[in-house]
Every structure is written in C-alpha cells, then in structure tokens.
Specification:
The chain is globular. The protein has seven helices and no strands. The protein is an all-alpha fold. Helix content is 82%, strand content 0%.
C-alpha cells in the first residue's frame, strides 16, 4: 500500500474515535463524571505524547530555535482562533453538561462548534502524517494518544450537543465529517511536508504540539475538573503514564 494512502487511513482511524465516542454518548446514558474522567485520562495521554514524541522529535530534527518558535506559534494561533470561536457560541464545545447553547440561544453556534472541533483535531491529524515521513511507519504513541483523546472528546461534546437539542443528523454529521477531514489532514501532512527541510518539519511538528497543549488547557482540563475535582489530577497522571509506557516500552 502506498504510504500516502496509509497515512490517510491512520488519520481516518484516529478520527473515527470521535464517532465512537459520540455514539456511546448518544445511545448510552454515560454519567458525566465518567465522561470527565475519560477526558482527564485523554488529556494525560496527549500531554505525554506531545512531550516525549512530538517535541522530542521536533528538537532532534530542527534544533531548539525552530522547535520553540513553532511551539509558541501553534499555541498563539490556536488561542486566537479559539477566542474568535468562543464569541460565536463554541466556548463550551467539549463540555458534556448544559453549557452548550442551542441555535435559538446563539444563532450560528452550531457552525462555530463544528469549526471549533476542526480546530481541535486538524493539528493532531497533520502530525500523524508528518511522523510517517521518515521510515513510512506511523508513530504508535502519537496514534494511540490521538485516538484515546478523541473518544472522550466525542463523548463529551455529543452529550452537550444532545442536551442543547441538536439533532442526531447534526451530531453525527459533525463528527463523521471531522473524522473524514482527519484522514485527509493526515494524508496531506505526509504528502506536503515530505518535500520540506528538516527545520520546516520540526517547526510544523512543534506548531501542532503547541496547539494541542493549548487545546488541552483551554478545553479538556476544564471539562475534566468540572466533574471530577478530587480525582482529575490522578487520572490525568495515569493517562500520562500509559502513553509514556507506550512510547518507551514500545520503542
């Protein structure tokens, strides 16, 4: 199988976890505390992956300057885009409770939520494709981190959308579309960036890492802390350790 097709399929697999989470949340009554706990675990997994897989790889390929510039730039761009979307009703897009506004309460919030979900997922997907540039193999630690974090994202957001009165077609249309775009983004991450220098690849990986860390702090951790204040830290540490073990023992 051509590597570019494999990259797209891996991205589609990781994005498909959003649909799994949304389906569980829509058809099964999942306690909010459990959703928050899974969100905390996913946050820990992502923090570990971006620390030991993405940032380490970016530094090895491009050195500190390219890595630092990319890392801060990714966080800054994400924060700016997130602030714009917040003003249009997407502030609580990962929340599982009643924070989601309905379309009547905030016209245009449905589109903002969908765009916000894309904003959260595209950096992760692009970096999956980038990890395949040298060697043609996916980083299993990065893949596991994205997949495991997407399940609680689908769980939490779909629960909030359902409470806000969003239709099943809207909910699954959003997550199905994002899963497809995740596959395309991973494919493009491989096809486009394999032609660039090590410094550009390093900066791109760091940009994704910065955006992911900003997303974790802005959206995932608040949801986790909201419902599991006494255990959120512990569950996050367990998720971090699980991804750390996958990175080190799997290598």
């Amino acid at each position: 199988m051509p590597t570019w097709i494999a990259a797209g399929l891996w991205g589609l697999l990781a994005g498909g976890a959003l649909i799994i989470g949304a389906g569980l949340s829509y058809f099964v009554r999942v306690p909010r505390a459990l959703i928050a706990g899974v969100m905390a675990f996913g946050a820990g997994v992502l923090i570990s992956a971006l620390s030991f897989d993405l940032m380490d790889e970016a530094f090895r390929r491009g050195g500190f300057l390219a890595t630092a510039v990319g890392f801060v730039s990714g966080a800054a761009v994400y924060t700016l885009a997130n602030a714009i979307l917040d003003r249009h009703g997407a502030k609580h897009r990962k929340r599982s409770g009643p924070q989601h506004p309905s379309e009547q309460q905030a016209p245009g919030s449905g589109l903002a939520i969908a765009v916000g979900a894309l904003l959260d997922g595209i950096p992760e997907s692009i970096v999956l494709g980038v990890t395949m540039i040298h060697g043609g193999a996916i980083s299993m630690a990065a893949l596991a981190a994205v997949f495991l974090s997407n399940v609680p994202e689908g769980l939490s957001s779909a629960a909030g959308m359902k409470q806000a009165g969003r239709s099943p077609g809207y909910i699954f249309g959003v997550w199905g579309g994002i899963a497809f775009i995740s596959g395309v983004a991973a494919l493009m991450g491989f096809v486009v960036f394999r032609h660039f220098s090590q410094a550009v690849i390093s900066a791109t990986t760091a940009v994704a890492a910065g955006a992911i860390l900003a997303m974790i702090a802005d959206t995932m951790i608040p949801e986790a802390f909201e419902e599991t204040r006494t255990t959120a830290g512990l569950v996050t540490v367990i998720g971090f350790l699980a991804a750390f073990a996958l990175t080190k023992l799997g290598g």
